[in-house]
């Protein structure tokens, strides 16, 4: 099949971000062309952690079950010093009550890409592999991408919009002239996927702490499979790509102080950690998503998950605009919502990373002496779990400051406009089971049928589902009110407004505002 020369959305790059965007556009019935210069999905493991928010998104694509079958749930963290266990923390159910997926799933990036790619193919779509973006131009009506196809021929694709999901070196970002400010850590890091013969079980992440180094062993799906991550000391004179695996293995053994036999090496790589983000996620009709817009330290395994969420945030907005159900300016809220998130992410991952890998003497003492015996105790507190899990799992990301979050009437609620829909059970099933359709959802929480007013005619132009949900004591506790209320959810399951005003006018005003040019 040759590359179409006309489409709605041109997606450049078919990593986890580009594939996610394509899958979301399929849900909305939007036409797209996705190209990638590579031969196929990545053969490398790269990102390992899949967080709760990503699994919630996968569930809407009906992929969560397969992801769970292919991966393993991160069970425990064991802290080791001098080869001995000095602390252990159970993580397997750390987000209980906060998500249908109260854990982190270990599933390598190549498998995530495979899942998304299979979804795309199952829906009759394809990626144009070995097709490279060479240049692009745009005007008020659209974007033209000049590409070289898999036979080396040049071709143009005209699109209404273009999204650069083309990774950290992003040709799209460079062409748009968007700056990518930030810094680079001095130290060189290494990552190795190996098989290990040793005394430790695969139900835990093992972190070896010593005065000047941290070496982490992440269990991977498959027998004796582990990902080892560590860093060379400051002043090490070799650059990325110059280090041989033997040098890494010697360092691992010395720093981990463990008896272990590395029986096979599947992949290894060295890299410098960069912390950078763009100042704007878009320019005209072109957008950036994923690593093309932000890169940060690997702490907390946030990279791949963040790209998937960028795509999720942008897809529904593009879909509404392309269908004429929303004005163009709704697209500005993509940058409005995702840029502050990227900035926050860089700060938190930076802090976590410094704590884990910093060389400051005080940090060394905290890491090796103070933290290990206290870790289990600290994380046994519900209040701490409720702060820690939303941060790591990305379910705590909020768009309260967005112009799409209408705060009138949310003052008395524990949950505000701009927050992700809280998770709770209805008749023993997740509320998210009712929210899979790619539409707005109007939820009327009511202790009486009288409050239910079907509101379909006002909103004919915007796809919307209405639900009536009994106001049980548990639901009242989650939202912090015990009287009937309306909640409008955006198609990405973020709250547009929440209010005790259950009149049809409230909904009509919100949706009219979205359409207003
Ligand atoms: C060694 C390593 C370990 C990592 N570990 C973790 C981790 O533990 N946790 C985590 O969350 N993240 C981790 N990451 C980061 C994670 O891999 C990225 O955040 C993720 O890949 C970003 O996805 P993306 O789709 O935005 O970009 P990418 O995966 O980089 O995909 C970009 C795609 O664009 C294509 N492309 C580029 N230029 C062009 C062009 N001109 N024309 C056509 N196609 C083009 C590329 O071929 C590529 O397929 C790791 C990365 C590396 C390298």
Kindly list the characteristics that best describe this protein.
517 residues; alpha+beta; FAD/NAD(P)-binding domain; Glutaredoxin; eight-stranded mixed sheet; 12 helices; 25 strands; 29% strand; globular; binds flavin-adenine dinucleotide
What is the topological layout?
Blueprint: E1 6-12, H1 16-28, E2 32-35, E3 49-50, H2 52-60, H3 64-70, E4 72-73, E5 76-81, E6 84-90, E7 105-106, H4 109-122, E8 127-128, E9 132-138, E10 143-148, E11 154-164, H5 171-176, E12 180-197, E13 204-210, E14 213-219, E15 225-231, H6 245-256, E16 261-278, E17 282-283, E18 286-288, E19 294-295, H7 303-322, H8 332-357, H9 361-378, H10 382-393, E20 425-426, E21 429-430, E22 440-446, E23 464-470, H11 473-479, E24 485-489, E25 495-499, H12 504-515
Parallel strand pairs: 1-2, 1-11, 2-8, 5-13, 11-18, 22-23
Antiparallel strand pairs: 3-7, 4-7, 5-6, 9-10, 10-11, 12-15, 12-16, 13-14, 14-15, 16-19, 17-18, 20-21, 22-24, 24-25
Helix pairs in contact: 1-4, 1-7, 7-8
Bound molecules: flavin-adenine dinucleotide.
Verbal overview:
With 517 residues, the chain is of the alpha+beta class. Among the domains are: 6-70 and 102-179 and 278-351, FAD/NAD(P)-binding domain (3-Layer(bba) Sandwich); 425-515, 3-Layer(aba) Sandwich (Glutaredoxin), CATH 3.40.30.120. Helices cover 30% and strands 29% of the residues. It contains 12 helices and 25 strands. The protein has helices spanning 16-28, 52-60, 64-70, 109-122, 171-176, 245-256, 303-322, 332-357, 361-378, 382-393, 473-479, 504-515; strands at residues 6-12, 32-35, 49-50, 72-73, 76-81, 84-90, 105-106, 127-128, 132-138, 143-148, 154-164, 180-197, 204-210, 213-219, 225-231, 261-278, 282-283, 286-288, 294-295, 425-426, 429-430, 440-446, 464-470, 485-489, 495-499. The strands form 5 sheets. Strands 1, 2, 8, 9, 10, 11, 17 and 18 form an 8-stranded mixed β-sheet that branches. It has an 8-stranded mixed β-sheet with strand order 6-5-13-14-15-12-16-19, with helices on both faces. Strands 23-22-24-25 form a 4-stranded mixed β-sheet, with no helix packed on it. Helix 1 (16-28) packs parallel to helix 7 (303-322) and helix 7 runs antiparallel to helix 8 (332-357). The structure holds flavin-adenine dinucleotide. The site of flavin-adenine dinucleotide has 34 residues, from helix 1, strand 9, strand 16 and helix 7.
């Amino acid at each position: 099949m040759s590359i179409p020369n006309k489409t709605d959305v041109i997606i450049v790059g078919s990593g986890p971000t580009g594939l996610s965007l394509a899958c979301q556009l399929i849900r909305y019935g939007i036409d797209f062309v996705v190209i990638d210069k590579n031969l196929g999905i990545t053969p490398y493991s790269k990102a390992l952690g899949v967080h709760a928010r990503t699994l919630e998104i996968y569930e809407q694509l009906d992929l969560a079950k397969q992801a769970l079958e292919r991966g393993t749930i991160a069970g425990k963290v064991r802290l080791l010093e001098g080869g001995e266990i000095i602390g252990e923390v159970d993580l397997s159910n750390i987000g209980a009550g906060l998500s249908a997926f109260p854990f982190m799933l270990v599933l390598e990036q190549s498998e995530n890409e495979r899942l998304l790619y299979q979804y795309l193919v199952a829906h009759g779509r394809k990626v144009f592999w070995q097709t490279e973006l060479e240049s692009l131009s745009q005007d008020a009506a659209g974007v033209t991408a000049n590409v070289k196809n898999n036979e080396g021929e040049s071709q143009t694709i005209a699109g209404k919009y273009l999204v650069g999901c083309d990774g950290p070196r992003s040709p799209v970002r460079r062409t748009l002239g968007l700056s990518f400010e930030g810094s680079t850590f001095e130290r060189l890091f290494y990552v190795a996927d190996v098989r290990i013969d040793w005394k430790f079980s695969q139900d835990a992440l093992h972190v070896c702490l010593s005065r000047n180094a941290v070496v982490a062993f992440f269990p991977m799906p498959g027998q004796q499979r582990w990902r080892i991550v560590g860093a060379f000391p400051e002043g090490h004179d070799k650059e990325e790509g110059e280090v041989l695996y033997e040098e890494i293995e010697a360092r691992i053994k010395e720093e981990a102080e463990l008896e272990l036999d590395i029986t096979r090496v599947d992949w290894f790589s060295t890299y410098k950690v960069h912390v950078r983000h763009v100042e704007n996620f878009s320019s005209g009709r072109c957008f950036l998503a994923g690593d093309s817009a932000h890169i940060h330290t690997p702490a907390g395994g946030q990279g791949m998950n963040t790209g998937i969420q960028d795509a999720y945030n942008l897809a529904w907005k593009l879909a509404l605009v392309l269908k004429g159900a929303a004005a163009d300016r709704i697209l500005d809220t993509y940058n409005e919502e995702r840029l502050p998130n990227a900035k926050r992410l860089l700060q938190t991952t930076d802090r976590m990373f410094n704590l884990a890998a910093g060389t400051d003497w005080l940090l060394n003492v905290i890491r090796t002496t103070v933290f290990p015996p206290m870790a289990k105790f600290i994380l046994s507190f519900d209040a701490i779990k409720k702060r820690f899990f939303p941060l790591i799992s990305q379910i705590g990301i909020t768009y309260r400051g967005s112009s799409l979050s209408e705060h009138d009437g949310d003052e008395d609620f524990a949950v505000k406009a701009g927050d992700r829909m809280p998770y709770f059970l209805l008749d023993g099933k997740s509320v998210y089971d009712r929210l899979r359709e790619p539409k707005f959802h109007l939820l009327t929480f009511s202790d009486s049928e009288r409050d239910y007013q079907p509101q379909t005619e006002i909103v004919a132009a915007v796809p919307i589902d209405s639900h009536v949900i009994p106001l049980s004591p548990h639901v009242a506790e989650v939202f912090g009110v015990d009287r009937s209320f309306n909640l409008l959810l955006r198609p990405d399951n973020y709250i547009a407004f929440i209010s005790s005003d259950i009149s049809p006018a409230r909904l009509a005003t919100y949706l009219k505002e979205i359409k207003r040019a």
